[in-house]
Amino acid sequence: MDIKSMKYSLYWLYCQFELITCSYLMEPWEKVLFYTFNITMLVMVLYAAYIFASAHIGTAFQFFLHLFGNHHENAVSIVK
Questions:
Q1: Taking the CA atoms of the chain, what radius of gyration do you get in angstroms?
Q2: DSSP of 19-38, one letter per residue?
Q3: Is the dihedral of CA 11, 16, 18, 19 positive or negative?
Q4: Transmembrane region positions (predicted)?
Q5: For residue range 21-62, what is the model confidence (pLDDT) as tens digits?
Q6: Number of C-alpha atoms within 13 angstroms, CB side, residue 65?
Q7: What is the distance between the alpha carbons of residues 36 and 38, in angstroms, rounded to a whole number?
Q8: Collapsing DSSP states into helix, strand and coil, what is residue 71?
Q9: By C-alpha distance, which of 22, 46, 44 is closest to 34?
Q10: CA neighbor of 17 nearest in space, from 2, 1, 31, 3
């Protein structure tokens, strides 16, 4: 894929995005607010997914280890 066709493809995707979101009707200052809000929401969702998904995967992993009989004793039960 050459640079010119990739540039055209990206421009085409941007035009499709503007058509879908109707942002081509907005004034420049409205576009800035709209894109800033959307990018902020996207970053917050990705951050939350990164933080909470790792915790849920760790909890699920511990559950399945316990379920299949690989019991890890904690330090309190070893001391007793």
A1: 24
A2: HHHTGGGS-HHHHHHHHHHH
A3: positive
A4: 32-53
A5: 999 999 999 999 999 999 999 999 999 988 888 888 888 888
A6: 10
A7: 6
A8: coil
A9: 22
A10: 31
Amino acid (one-letter) located at 42? L
Token code pair at residue 51: 């933080």
The per-residue pLDDT for range 11-23, each reduced to its tens digit, is 999 999 999 999 9
Whole-angstrom CA distances from 31 to 5, 24, 39, 73 are 26, 8, 12, 56
* Pair 31, 42: CB distance under 8 Å: no
Find out whether 72 and 65 touch, Cβ atoms under 8 Å.
yes
Confirm if 34 and 26 have CB atoms less than 8 A apart. Answer: yes
Tokens of 42: 């996207």
Q: How far apart are the first and last CA of the chain?
A: 67
